[in-house]
Amino acid sequence: MKTTHIVSRILFYFTRFLAVVYFFLAAYSVFTLITGLFLTFKDNGKYFQVCYPFTSHPLMLGDYNLPYILFDFLAPLSLYGLFFLLSSNVFKVFFQPKLFTQNGISHLRRFYLSNLLIPGIVIFTAFFFVPLDNEVSLFILLHGMLGVFAYFLAAIFKQGLNLQNEQDLFI
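Structure for DUF2975 domain-containing protein, as requested:
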C-alpha cells in the first residue's frame, strides 16, 4: 500500500501542475485575444500567434476566426485543465488515511460524469460551427472508456464504504 501512496502522490502533483498550466494557457490566450497584447498575425490576419510575454516568439498558433478560437483553441485548453484538475482530485483519494470515504466517491463521480458528458456535449455543439477531424472521435471514445472505468471504480468505492460502515457498527 505504501507504493500506491507514493505513486498517487506523484501523479496528484503532476496532474495538478498540468491543470495549472492548461488553465494558465487558456486564461493567457483569452487575455491576449481580447487585449491584443503579445498577439501577432500572419497571412493578412488569417492566422494568429499568441506570443510568450514581452517577446515576439510564438507560443501558440491558430486560425483567426471566432468558431475556431472558441471550439478548437480555447475549449480544449480549458477543458483539459478541468480534466487534469479532476484527475488530480482522484489521485488525491488514494493517499488519504482512509481510502473509502464519501469525499472520494464524490471525486470519482465528478470525474466519470465529466468524462462521459462534457466531450459529447462540446463536440455536438462544435459540430454546427467547425469541421471535426477524425481524431476527435478517438478522443471522445477514450474519454468515454475512461468515464466508464471511473464509474465502476466509484461503484467499488461505494460498496467499500458501505462495508466499512457496517464493520464500524459491529466494533
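The chain has one domain: 2-170.
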